[in-house]
Design goal:
Chain lengths: 497, 488
């Protein structure tokens, strides 16, 4: 069975979607356990698969026994092995943590929600595991379509429009990508990534390949909300149901960054991306712009969920910039940040979910006295905030370390300044929240027993996963050295300096 | 030199963190304070247990995790770190006692939170003292910044909010904006962040780059309150007085100075600084802070603010001493970490005791206070003598060595600065004492009913005053450590 792990990752959630959908007609409470079981299997397969890759090197799986380049091949190396573990575990933790809030938010649509949930995860797992550029497109659409639907389940007055906006722009992005691989197919006659990679080098200077590359990148950039192609993201993630935004926000954009890295490393190859094309320097500057604008726009928000969506946009800039620095340090930082940012974002959005579960409204003014009302949730929120700011020993510090080192090595001081600037702005963002939540009006500060605000912490099923995620921020941080040497460094090709 | 691999440095750091769940969950205040004392005592014992070996010239090392080659989270106990840890951990015990008197005396709210974050702050302080490399130091430096925020803003009123903002803006802004890039540049240039006796940068960087890094570090460690990054310190005086006492006279500000000393000796190295004549630049920056800080202190009417400006000026003594790059000057600067700590904490304790007993904060309201609170004001006098640098207090020796250091380094201007500053110190401290005791009955502002502060407040301040005097007669341990740290 162990050699079927790559396909199990995708098929188990896929089939469970049908089961959940059917069960929801029988009894709604059956849906959650099935989803849990399906995603649990995915996590198990992903972890086993990662160890398998560590032991034996790249794992290939040919769907239906068809040999590539004709059949669809799934190909797992350390890079997507890591991303698979991240995607599946984030999805599982979030599933567990949001169980209560789903019941509260839309009791009549539980079946729909969980069906979409597992389908979305299917899409993301598929995108990550596949070794075929067209298959990637198909799964990208599965993930995107389910994301549109999940978002539309949110606030009745705003979410449908936000989702529609996302549909339009997201479809554009998908079209760009599809056109890109169309060009690739015309030029090489192949859709298999490894095969394309061997066919491309002789025709690197062809304009069609250039167009293919640019179309693919634009498509991916739209999907990951890389500034200035980010316009769909803030509304979509703000108005989505909390249980969905804490799934989509940590994963969707990160998986798209993975796709960008995969296209650069395994399809077009670093030689083409960094040497033949002279766009990397300009793209890093664009990333600087993304980081700075994301931070500044975040500063202008009064709703914390919306604020976080802009922080997310700035984090995308971190990763894209790191990738396009074109050296090992920057690339390591970007890949490490996929992992770290996924955990950070999950932690932040779960905390927001907990707060929203207890408190009406997520404007800054609603957060007064929150440290007393929800001390543990706020502790987790602060930990994630520190990680976003980049305070050691949280993991955010270490990816920033690699990214800034990469910037210094590449001599791109603009990127360094942008990262530091964003750290400072993030510090303002989070301490603004901390300040509001911490300071509370009190009649006397010289009375040891005054405490009018009562404890109203979120239920344990929401709290425990959040705390686990918060602790993992520090644990991952402490082990980032090992993560980089064992998981990330072997992935990077010798070609980049 | 013998190097011992031992977990003890890590334990010394972690022990107060481990006490936090106990402190937070204790139901009765007395039990809670017992845990604080237990942690403080354990910490002190752990530090002391390493002292004999350090005095013999050994070092203790412990690596927690290796993050990158040359950049791990690891601990090292050497003479300099030992000196600082000794001061901080011993004063934590005394301050804990004082905190009980002060916080209960004023019926402050959220005392559990207060004691918890105090414990975190001490962990961070010892962490900085025992850091083996810049990354570890940075980690604990940031931890200290964050842990002290709830202490500074303890009152949770608008004034605390303003000060808290200022505090974080200065401290976090500089550490992220200046120290972090400087640290990464150093790592990029040398491939290591380990503090080493001769420095790391020699042969790796041009004069311009070294100067840039020096500026980044000197101002980046804003806890040292080198002007113009000093104004968080007077603002932070809104904190309860025990916080001001331990953190803003001993732990936080000394962590800033300690970090600068570490970087100057362990990252730059004495050789490169004197070859490029950069020590002198630092001297002048420090001298400016010394004089201006003292002048501003003259004009402050609020006692704690006056003490804060005095601290700003005294911190730069330490930087000046080390930047002289002469053995005597370095010894003097490093010993001043200890001597100033005991003197200044006494002064803060006194200010707090006066506040607990009378509610008065302003010097102009304290005429005749010495008649009602003679013990407190006597201790204040001793503390003032120590900070001015007069016998029979420990402060005399550190200043003596600083003066010798200026002569040894042929920096006559700095000699003048030191002497001038001593006059200014006397000018802003002695009138307080004078007016406390010498006044007619009509002038005295206090009723007969005003008494000394409760014993929990009084005993600690007497104790630190006595230690200040004791250090005049037996300064050997600190001098031995400082001389080892200065490489004599």
């Amino acid at each position: 069975m162990s050699h079927h792990f790559p396909v199990l990752l995708v098929t188990v959630p896929l089939l469970s979607a049908f089961v959940i959908s059917a069960l929801s007609w029988v009894k709604k409470s059956f849906c959650f356990p099935v989803a849990l079981l399906a995603l649990g299997t995915s996590v198990y397969s992903a972890v086993r698969l990662l160890f398998q890759v560590l032991d034996q090197g790249v794992v290939e799986y040919h769907l239906g026994g068809w040999m590539p380049p004709w059949g669809i091949a799934y190909r797992v190396d350390l890079l997507n092995g890591l991303v698979l573990v991240v995607v599946s575990s984030v999805a599982l933790v979030n599933l567990f943590a949001t169980h209560k809030s789903v019941q509260k938010a839309f009791p009549e649509k539980i079946g729909t929600f969980y069906t979409l949930y597992v389908l979305f995860v299917t899409g993301l797992m598929g995108i990550t595991v596949t070794g075929d550029v067209f298959n990637l497109y198909v799964l990208l659409e599965i993930a995107s379509l389910t994301a549109y639907a999940l978002i539309a389940l949110g606030q009745p007055d705003r979410a449908p429009l936000a989702s529609l906006n996302y549909v339009f722009i997201g479809t554009l992005g998908a079209c760009f990508y599809l056109l890109g691989i169309g060009y690739l197919y015309i030029m090489t006659g192949s859709l298999n990534m490894a095969d394309i990679a061997t066919l491309l080098p002789p025709i690197y200077h062809s304009k069609a390949v250039l167009v293919a590359f640019i179309f693919c990148m634009v498509g991916v950039c739209i999907k990951m909300a890389f500034f200035p192609l980010h316009m769909w993201l803030p509304n979509a993630y703000t108005y989505a149901p909390d249980a969905a935004s804490s799934l989509i926000a940590p994963l969707m954009t990160k998986v798209m960054v993975y796709v960008m890295i995969r296209l650069i490393l395994s399809v077009f190859l670093p030689d083409f991306s960094f040497q033949v094309l002279h766009i990397s320097h300009a793209l890093v500057w664009l990333a600087c712009l993304a980081i700075i604008m994301g931070s500044l726009l975040a500063l202008a928000q009064t709703n914390i969920k919306r604020m976080l969506t802009y922080v997310l946009i700035s984090e995308i800039g971190y990763m894209v910039g790191g990738v396009w620095l074109g050296n090992r340090l920057g690339m390591s930082g970007a890949i490490l940040h996929i992992l770290n940012d996924a955990i950070m974002t999950l932690c932040l959005f779960l905390a927001i979910g907990n707060i929203a579960y207890r408190i009406q409204g997520l404007d800054l003014t609603h957060l007064k006295g929150l440290f007393r009302k929800m001390p543990l949730t706020m502790a987790a929120f602060v930990t994630a905030g520190l990680s976003v700011i980049g305070v050691p020993p949280t993991c955010g510090f270490f990816s920033k370390w690699y990214l800034i080192s990469g910037a210094i090595q590449a001599g791109h001081y603009g990127f360094m300044v942008a990262l530091l600037f964003s750290s400072l702005v993030n510090a303002i963002l989070f301490f603004r929240i901390i300040e509001i939540a911490y300071f509370e009006p009190m009649e006397s500060h010289h009375d040891a027993n005054v405490s009018k605000v009562s404890l109203m912490e979120a239920p344990l099923t929401m709290l425990v996963p959040l705390l686990i995620v918060a602790v993992s921020l520090v644990v991952v941080g402490l082990y980032s050295g090992d993560i980089v040497t064992t998981l990330i460094a072997p992935v990077l090709p010798k070609g980049i300096g | 030199m013998e190097t011992v691999n031992s977990i003890r440095p890590f334990l010394a750091v972690i022990v107060s963190l481990c006490a936090i769940p106990l402190i937070a969950s204790a139901r009765r205040p007395n039990v809670r304070e017992m845990w604080t004392f237990l942690a403080a005592a354990l910490k002190f014992l752990l530090v002391i247990s390493m002292l004999p070996a350090v005095l013999r010239g050994s070092q203790f090392t412990y690596t927690l995790v290796e993050f990158l080659p040359g950049a791990s989270i690891s601990f090292k106990v050497d003479a300099l770190g030992m000196l600082f840890a000794l001061v901080a951990s011993s004063l934590w015990i005394i301050t804990s006692a004082y905190s009980i008197g002060y916080m209960r005396g004023l019926k402050e709210h959220s005392q559990s939170r207060y004691f918890c974050f105090f414990a975190v702050a001490l962990s961070a302080t010892i962490g900085v003292a025992f850091s083996a490399n810049l990354l570890t130091l940075y980690l604990f430096y940031e931890m200290l910044s964050l842990a002290t925020y709830p202490l500074v803003t303890h009152h949770q009123d608008p004034a605390a909010r303003q000060s808290g903002r200022k505090y974080l803006t200065y401290i976090l802004g500089t550490s992220i904006g200046l120290v972090l890039p400087a640290m990464l540049i150093v790592y990029h240039l040398t491939g290591s962040l380990e503090f080493s006796a001769g420095g790391l940068l020699a042969g790796h960087a041009s004069k311009g780059l070294v100067a840039l890094l020096l500026i980044l570090f000197l101002f980046g460690f804003a806890k040292a309150a080198v002007m113009p990054f000093h104004s968080w310190l007077p603002a932070a005086m809104v904190a309860p007085t025990p916080v001001s006492a331990l953190l803003h006279a001993v732990a936080v500000v000394k962590v800033g100075v300690f970090s600068i000393v570490r970087v100057l000796t362990g990252i730059f190295g004495v050789a490169i600084l004197s070859n490029f004549h950069l020590g002198t630049v630092v001297c002048y920056i420090a001298a400016f802070t010394i004089i201006v800080g003292s002048l501003v202190a003259l004009s402050q009417d609020e006692l704690k603010r006056r003490l804060a400006f005095s601290t700003i000026s005294q911190l730069s003594y330490i930087i000046l001493g080390v930047a002289l790059l002469s053995p005597k000057g370095m010894t003097g600067g490093i010993v001043h970490i200890a001597m100033h700590a005991f003197g200044k904490i006494t002064l803060f304790f006194c200010a707090g005791a006066i506040f607990v007993a009378t509610g008065k904060k302003y010097v102009s309201d304290m005429v005749g206070i010495g008649r009602r609170m003679p013990v407190t004001m006597a201790a204040f006098f001793v503390g003032a003598l120590s900070v001015i640098g007069l016998p029979p207090t420990g402060g005399f020796f550190s200043k003596w060595y600083l003066v010798l250091g200026t002569l040894q380094a042929h920096q006559q201007v700095m000699l003048v600065v030191l002497l001038l500053s001593s006059f200014l110190n006397a000018a802003y401290f002695l009138p307080v004492v004078y007016r406390a005791f010498f006044c007619t009955d009509e002038e005295a502002m206090f009723e007969k009913s005003v008494k000394e502060a409760p014993p929990w407040c009084l005993v600690p301040l007497v104790l630190t005053a006595v230690i200040s005097i004791f250090l005049f007669f037996y300064p050997d341990i600190f001098f031995r450590l400082a001389e080892m740290a200065a490489g004599m």
